[in-house]
Queue: 2 jobs
Job 1
Amino acid sequence: MGAKLKVAGLLTLGAVAGALTTIQFQAIARGSQTALPLEEMQQLAAVFGMVKNDYVEPVDEKKLINDAISGMVSGLDPHSQFFDKKSFKEFREGTSGKFVGVGIEIGMEDGLVKVVSPIEGSPAFRAGLKSGDLITKIDDTAVKGLSMDQAVKRMRGDPATKVVLTVFRKSESRSFPVTIVREEIKVQSVRAKVLEPGYAWLRVSQFQDQTVNDFVRKLDEIYKQEPNLKGLVLDLRNDPGGLLEGAVALSAAFLPAGVEVVSTNGQLADSKATYKALPEDYLRRGGQDPLRKLPAALKSVPLVVLVNEGSASASEIVAGALQDHKRAVIMGAQTFGKGSVQTVRPLSPETALKITTARYYTPSGRSIQAKGIVPDIWLDETAEGNVFAALRTREADLEKHLNNGAEEKDEAREKAREEARKKLEEQLAKSKDSIKPLPEFGSAEDFQLAQALNKLRGKPVMVSKSVTERKAEAKTE
C-alpha cells in the first residue's frame, strides 16, 4: 500500500496544473437567459427548504446555493466550474501571473518541496534560496505528508507578512531556517537560453496575461546573443494552457501572416470563430502588436517543438497549428488531448462561471479532444526509457470528458499503464531510496532537449523504444 501511495506522489512531478484550460473572458449576456423549467425549480426550492429547516444542524443559506450551483456545473465536464469568492481570486491570480508569496518555482522530491528555481528579484531569491534546496518545514508545519497544493497555500499569504522556511541544502549537508517577507510576485512563464553557438531553447510554462510580452523579450535577448540563429527549440512540455489569445499570438510569431491558427465551434454564434495569424485575432485589449518587434528571420528559423502528456489546451493549439502548416517538427509524446474552450462569465464582482462553450480544431480540421497531438518523432523521457509517461493522467482518463465521436477503450494503453505502475511499485518495495526524479527541463541532463538539439543540427536522434499511441477516435458527426 505504501508503494502505491508513493507512486501516486511521484506522478505530481509531471502533473498538469489544475487549471487545464483554454479560456476566454466574456461579460454575461443578461438578455439571453432561457425560460426556467417550473416543475424542476419547484423541486429545487422544496429541497432547499427541507435542508434549511430539517437538517440536524443549521446550514448557511449562501453555502447551500453555492453548493447547488457547483453541483450543477461539475456534472457537465471536468473543466466547467463555479468560482466562489476564494476560488475566483485564485483563478485570476493564475491567469494574471501575479500572486502574493515567496517567489519560487517548485517540484516535489522524497515528499519534500524542492526549489526548482527562485524567481529572479523575488524575496526567496534575495534570501539566497538555490535550485535544489529542499523545504522541510513551513513555519511549524512539516512538509512531509503535504500535497504540493497544500504546501503552496501555506507559503502564500498577505503582503508584508512573514513565513519561516526550514531548508535542507544537500551540497552543504545542513538544514537552516530562512525568514521571508511575502510580497507580490510576477510569475515568469517564459524562460530561455542559448544552448550552444547558433542554437537556443525557449520554454513556455503557461499562457498568462504577460506571456506574449515575455516571449518577445526573451527572443530579443536570444537574437542579441545569436543574430544568426540556426535553430530554436520551443519547449511546451507540461504547459497546461491558459489564454486562447496567447496561443494564437505565439503561433503567429512563427507562421505567415493571415494563415489559420485555430477554429472553434459550439452552440452559441460567438463560439463559431476562426483565429488567424493577425493582430486583430490575438490582441484582447487593442494596443500595439508586441510581435512587431520580432526579427523577420523568426518566420523561417528551423524549429522543433517539444511536447509531452502534460502539454494541454493552449499549448496543443500551438503544436497543432505549427504541425499542420509544416512549420515545425513536433517531438516528444502524445499530448493531453484537451480540445475544448472555456468562457469565464462574471456573475458578481467576486464570483464567476467557467463553462465549456466550444470545441477547437487545428487548421486541417482535426479535433484533438480526448486524443491529443501525435508527435512527428516520439521520444522517451530518458535514454533508458520512460519512467512516468504511461501513468500520467490525460483527458481521456477524466470522468465526464467530452467525447470525440464514438470512443473505443484503449486496451494497449491500459495495459501499459498497469505494467508501468507495477514496475514502479516493485522498485519502491525493493529499495528504501525513492525513484530518481526526472531532470529539470532545460538542464544539461534533459534527454529530450538533447534529442531536439540533435534534430536541429542534423545529427542522429534516439527515438522512443516504447511508443504507446492512443487509438484514433471516430470523427464527430
Job 2
Amino acid sequence: MLTVSTVNVNGIRAAAAKGFTEWLAATPADVVCLQEVRAEPEQFPGHLRAPDGWHTLIAPASTKGRAGVAVFSRIAPTATRIGFDAPEFAASGRYAEIDLPNVTIASLYLPAGEAGTDRQSEKERFMTAFHAHLQRLHARAATTGREVLICGDWNIAHREADIKNWKANQKNSGFLPEERQWLSTLLDDTGYVDVVRTLHPNIEGPYSWWSFRGKAFDNDSGWRIDYHMATPDLAARATSAVTERAATYAERWSDHAPVTCVFDWDIAAVPAPRGPIVDVSTGVAAN
C-alpha cells in the first residue's frame, strides 16, 4: 500500500509549535506533501529539517516568508526536481516533485489570486504554464508506465459541492467561472483524476480549508481546494481518502486539514515501458 498526505501548513514554524510535529510523528503516510512552509531550509525547526526516517526536499520561495513547498518521503527518491518549465515561477516556491521507483509525486501550491488584480493575472499565467507541464508528465507516464500524483493546495474549488457558500463566492478568486473551467479542461485534456471526489462522489465537501475568521470552522463553512490528482491507473487503485479535520477549533495547527489517500500500489514494482520512451520536449524517441 502507498499512503500519501498533503497539507498547507500555513507556516511550518507556527504549525510545528501548534501540533504538526506530533501529527507527523503519528502519521502512517509514506509521503507527505507540504505547502506554504514560508521558510528557508535553515529556518525549519531542526527536528523537521531532516526528520528521522524521512528524506526531505524543500523548495523555498525567493520572496522571503512567502509560499514554499516541501516533500517528505520515507522512501528514498531516485530523483528530485524543483519547479517546472516556466522561468517566471522557477524560484517561486510553488512546485517540487520526487521520483520513487514507479511513481512521481509532487507538491503544488497554486497562487491564490485576487479577482481583478495583478495577483489574478499571475495566477492565470501559472495555470497556463502548469497545464502544459501536466500534459508533459502525463505523456511521460503513458510511454513509461510511471504513474503521477500531484498533491497540494490548488486554490480552486472545482464544483458547487466543493464550497459551502458557493453562491456568494462566484466573483471571488478560487471560485471564478474561468478558474473552474480551467480545472475541468485540464482534467479532460490530461486525463488526471480527482481521487477524493471519485471516492466521495455525492457529498458536500469534504472541505479541507476553513477561514480562521468567525465561525467558519465550527459551522463547517469550508472550501475543498486541497487535491490528489492522479493518472488513471494510480487513481483506480485508490482505496480510501480522508480529510483529517481537527476535532475542535483549538486543536487546529493550520487553516487547512491534511488530506490523506491510500492506494493499493506496490511502490517497489518497477514498471515496464509500454513503448518507445519519448523525449516529450522534442517528440523524439530515445535510444
